[in-house]
Design brief:
alpha+beta; 411 residues; three-stranded antiparallel beta sheet; 14 strands; GIY-YIG endonuclease; Nucleotidyltransferase, domain 5; excinuclease ABC activity; 44% helix; eight-stranded mixed beta sheet
Length: 411
Amino acid sequence: MQKLATNLPDKPGVYIFRGSGRAVLYIGKATSLRSRVASYFRGDLIATRGPILVGMVESAKSVDFIETDSVLEALILEAHLIKKHQPVYNTKEKDNKSFNYVVITKEDFPRVLVVRGRELETLLSTTNYQIQTTFGPFPQGSVLREALAIVRKIFPFRDKCKPNSGKPCFNAQIGLCPGVCAGTVSKTEYAKTIRRIKMFFEGKKKTLVSGLTREMKTYAKNLKFEEAGRIKRMIFALNHIQDVALIKASHRPRLGEGGFRIEAYDVAHISGTNVVGVMVVLEDNEPKKSDYRKFKIKTSTNDDNASLREILERRFNHTEWPMPKLIVVDGGKAQVNTAEKALKEWGIQIPVVGVVKDEHHKPKGFIGGRLIPAQDANLLIRNRDRQILLANSEAHRFAIGFHRQLRGKIK
């Protein structure tokens, strides 16, 4: 199979790993089918993609692929095939509640929204929302939002504005809403836009383009040249999808690439009750709050090391998340050993630093690959050490906040 990868096209598309009896094991999208599939056969697979997909590759017997005209279409096809086949390694790789969906609401002027799996369950159970259609699951929320931004430039839609409110919303002013708010588009005309969006997310681009072409010719025949020109621009946009932003979003930094990413972990509880853990992220000296994560501990009560291991295991099951270049844990030798032992078992090579605290829970030094006393105040403002302390402080703050939030709900 490794040789097969070199024969794949250097084009966007979807690849399908199959096991015994042609069973679908894993489905993924690619900017370049050749380079993406080849990456599964490199020696650093565990470090770059995680231990779960190593098992998938070992079980695979063949790889199929479907070439697409754009990365955007590969993204949509990937979601359609994941929903159809429910591949075992896609669901292992990520909790279904963490997947993302495109939701079209059931209204006179439907909204088009991106909704996470856990939020979708809430929407479906509330009477305030009626949902017409959902598309997904999409594994990566950031990539999906980039994709929807591209679709919106071709087919402007409503997401937040109030219909017929009398004045155009900001998106209407920049051409991303057709004027639902200002009353400049009819219910019938807007319904056409929603039908086109649905066809595109159903993977029916060729049918969509054929229908638009017929519509354009009808307008031209009836001397409605302005309308014919508008449809012609849609057709051109569909046939020349500009998804550079989507390509960039698909290439999230992996270990050894991109900016310097630190992940810091902490555990919070009171005498083993309401045990929670968190992960916070710093990239190039700045907190990246969109990547912060919360964990309710399931397997331990009053054992911080066991809780830390559970958090790390759950984190590294998310192979779609960027890999860090440094891990920071709150504590001394025991915590560092726990993290290093777990990473070694999974074949992941990432340095671990523990932040050692004094009796007042103030940092007094680092332990791990090195031990640096922190009595010298100047040391605390040097770049890398400052990042470690900031990451640790953020993790502690975030963990305490989550713990208090959970306690408040239980009360």
